[in-house]
Amino acid sequence: MDFMTVQIVTPDGIRYDHHAAFILVKTTEGELGVYPGHIDLIAVLEIGEIKVRRVDDENHVDWIAVNGGIIEISKNKINIISDSAERERDIDVSRAERAKLRAEREMEEAQHARNADLERRASIALQRAINRIRVGNH
Predict the structure, then answer these.
(1) Virtual torsion, Cα 122, 126, 127, 132, nearest 10 deg
(2) What mean pLDDT do residues 58-70 have?
(3) Could you tell me which of 21, 39, 60, 111 has the fewest CB atoms within 10 Å of its CB?
(4) pLDDT tens string 4-38
């Protein structure tokens, strides 16, 4: 088989479902590139972008922002489960930039207050906003 089926699922349902010739994801162990025929694998995803090179046109690439999750590869079927996933075309970059500014402000306040829990939450919000901006600007 010269293609894979890629499906991204969130609590809101299926967010992406297409055939791909290649995908690139960011796992906790580093970047993972997947071509058809890849060995079966399960890995933990970081907050990051997913690159999907579609089979309909080798120049057609979809970019999807995910907030972590799990990738399962089995027999040319790729299932990605994440708490959220947004395609490049669906991202409101100006809204993401406002979220980034808000997270930076919250992080600064948490550091000033020496509140590690709030600082960790602000750091995650900042990572998510930066990821959305990066994907939205592809």
Answers:
(1) 140
(2) 93
(3) 39
(4) 999 999 999 999 999 999 999 999 999 999 999 99
Side-chain-side CA neighbours of residue 60 (13 Å)? 8
Q: What single-letter amino acid sits at 78?
A: I
Radius of gyration for the alpha carbons in the chain, expressed in angstroms and rounded: 16
User: Hey, what amino acid is at 81?
Assistant: I
Give the whole-angstrom CA distance, residue 86 versus residue 128. 11
| CB-CB contact of 104 with 98 (8 Å) | no
Please measure the distance between the N-terminal and C-terminal CA atoms of the chain and give it in whole angstroms.
Answer: 29
CA distance 136 to 12: 20
CA 54, distance to chain mean position in Å, is 17
Tokens at residue 97, please? 């930039």
Task: Give the single-character DSSP code of 83.
Answer: S
Task: Please report the DSSP string for 57-115 in residue order.
Answer: -TT-EEEEEEEEEEEEEETTEEEEE-S-EEEGGG--HHHHHHHHHHHHHHHHHHHHHT-
